[in-house]
């Protein structure tokens, strides 16, 4: 994994993917100076996610989609799109959880937790089932983080039962769609 991470980018798409990682790092500082430490903390969560595709050696297009998704999800919180744009919350939960679930599916393969996905075509049901399970787990974990943030840090975080269930359902559906797409698209270099 280290060799893949340290390999210089080749081609425009890989340079763009690396530029998005720089945008993520700069976002942390911008949010910290222009908005609040809480907002900087939200963007700090993106940094490990933004470098993960580089370690895993996913195709540049998937890397870009993943990185944009993570940055949009984080910045949507900072600039309050989840509260001000109707349906935005569900759309982001659907899309971002879908790409996150597929990325974690690849990660599990690279760690040999599941059969490695490199150079093989697993049965179609494998990424569908595993990405959906991963997506539902991510959704539950995220909602717990929101609850903990609301309970212990700030009451500015919106937590409500219907919102929580809706977010988890949208995330699970997005992960299912991500798993379906993963059966058709080659994700790794």
From TrEMBL:
Return the protein name.
Answer: DUF2238 domain-containing protein
The record's Pfam families line, in alphabetical order, gives:
DUF2238
Q: Which InterPro entries match?
A: YjdF-like
The answer to keyword Transmembrane applying to this record is yes
Task: Tell me where the transmembrane regions lie.
Answer: 15-35, 56-78, 90-108, 128-145
Q: Carries keyword Transmembrane helix?
A: yes
UniProt keywords (A-Z) are: Membrane, Transmembrane, Transmembrane helix
Organism name: Microbacterium wangchenii
Write down the superkingdom of origin: Bacteria
